[in-house]
Amino acid sequence: MTKRVTQGPAGYMPQSAPSMGVELAPKGQGLLYGNVVTEEEAMRDAAIALLTMANPTIFPGPQILWDWKDDVAEKAAALLELASEIPNCKIIPMPDYRPKYPKIDVKAEINPNHPNLTILDNKIKACIFIGVHCHYANLTLRMIRAGTDCYTIALCAYMGHEEAMASINDLHASDLRKFKEIIIEERKKLGIEWTTTEPPRNPSLPKEDNSTLSPVDYGEYRSLIMTKKGEHVTDVE
Amino acid sequence: MSLKYVTPVAMFKKYLPKDYVELVDFGPFGKTQDEAGPGNMGQFKELMEEHPMCSGCWMAYYIRLIFASLPCPEETVTLGTAGCGRLAISQAAVPFIYGNYGDQNAMASGLSRAFRLRFPDKQKDVITIAGDGGTMDIGFSMTMHSWIRGERFTTIMLDNEVYGNTGGQESGMSPKGAVLKMAPGGKQFNKMPATDLAKAAGCVYIVRMSPTNIKKAAKIIRRAIFVAREVGPTFIHAYTSCNIEYSIPTEEVFADAKLREKDRFQFEEYMTDAAKEVIDRIEAEEKAAHRAKKGIVEEEVN
Questions:
Q1: Is residue A217 part of a domain?
Q2: Measured between CA atoms, how close is A226 to chain B, in angstroms?
Q3: Of A91, A98, A105, Cβ closest to residue B15
Q4: Domains within chain B, CATH numbers bracketed
Q5: Contact B234, B227 (CB under 8 A)
Q6: Residue A142 placed within a domain
Q7: Is residue A170 included in any domain, yes or no?
Q8: CA-to-CA distance for A146 and A179, rounded, in angstroms?
Q9: Is B30 near chain A, with CB under 8 Å?
Q10: How far apart are the CA of A172 and the nearest CA of chain B, in angstroms?
Q11: How many domains are contained in chain A?
């Protein structure tokens, strides 16, 4: 098999997978490195990547995080079962797509506009995207391929994604359970011992305590501190 | 775009960042203005908190106020265009559509029509929030045409009287004689009569103001949204100074807003009879609900 879509970094503005001739897989089949393969073949390769690469992480998107449709809860339960079978797997959510400036908490969330920050900071080498709206998933997957060496897996309820190394389309809760079984099988084959454990909860940063801040903490920016009316701060000058 | 979109799947709540959990638990979604409105800002999780606007930006304050005043944030979509404002608006927890150089009112026309067709049983609010350049210069034709067509949504113009985002060029809304970094000779022409243009184009509710009074500003925003739901286009022309381009010291931004209230931004409210009818009805309903709630609380106390 010729690997057409591979792990990066492919460099700034890489050629898009569709322009390399990669086409979406028909229903019931998957994409592996840009080639149409059986769903099981794609799942097996993805399972091995998740089991052997450092810091496997699942990035659930809005479509699976928010309870907006009847079947979401079941799919979420299946995803959590799957995550529990991957050794040391983490869940870092993408709750929505709004830009996060001036900073993003890279330990707690991933943003489609700069996903590489979360991936590089957490040293993630294999990840799953699920429940991210397709247009944002395409953008994110391509950015990850451009700037990181992360193996990307797209689990899509619709048509799949060319930019991912492994892509499964038309995915429902039953397919997630099938993927889980494949992961368990491959784990046994590789001789990895693991007891089913849920991923750790979200490590959001604690609220910042500014009560002890002094002008010195602002370093070279201390001259920008605005004083209160009538106040004259001598140690800034 | 519905309360369901801000309800997390139970088993995933522990995987959400703290910010989102707080927004779900203590945010304004599904709550009344008494519970989470401009009157008690600081006591609930706001829709817009972090933003990259300049220190002392009066526009950032007004945008924060707009989001706190929304009658139904979970059913609201905002639209904007290039300019300072969108940097903050796009970071709010309300869906935002970024228009391409001034086409926000054209997009809002299609969007509000589509919502009425797709969700005939729901009330979706569409609000365009753009600067003076986006509304009155670059987006002028699309703004005017949306009003002439009688499109039912709210237009809010954040008038800082300059192209602040691109280094200080004069805009149609800059006052005559304004000397700016990129207009050193002083502006040669008068400020555009935005509210008069809105009246001529058929807006049914128009307000010009400098939002120095939180309660009053919030009431105006809500009135404009309620009228747009039922009658026709509404327009708020608000002064939101650019303290960088007009060199207003941070501590004098509020005083400047007060000063403008006495000249270029004297409070002016215009409404048609149909708009007045809607406002009277809704405010009477709100008062009645408030009294009823107060009565229940007093009874409980007694």
A1: no
A2: 8
A3: A91
A4: 3-301 (3.40.50.970)
A5: yes
A6: yes
A7: yes
A8: 27
A9: no
A10: 16
A11: 1
CATH number reported for the structural domain that contains residue A142 in this entry? 3.40.50
ipTM rounded to 2 decimals = 0.85
SS3 A209: coil
Residues facing residue B226 across a β-bridge = none
> Using CB atoms, which residue from B7, B52, B93 is nearest to A66?
B7
Q: Which chain B residues contact residue A105 at CB under 8 A?
A: 17
Report residue A164 as tokens.
Answer: 């991912």
Return per-residue pLDDT of chain B as tens, 302 residues: 578 888 999 999 999 998 899 898 899 999 988 889 998 888 899 998 888 899 889 999 999 999 999 999 999 999 999 999 999 999 999 999 998 889 999 999 999 999 999 999 999 999 999 999 999 999 999 999 999 999 999 999 999 999 998 989 999 999 999 999 999 999 999 999 999 999 999 999 999 999 999 999 999 999 999 999 999 999 999 999 999 999 999 999 999 999 999 999 999 999 999 999 999 999 999 999 888 888 877 777 77
DSSP B45-69: --S-----PPTT-HHHHHHHHHHHH
How many residues are given for chain B?
A: 302
Query: A66 and B56 in contact by Cβ < 8 A?
Result: no
User: Which tokens go with B172?
Assistant: 């149609």
- Supply the range of the domain harboring residue A150: 18-190
d(CA A202, CA A90): 9
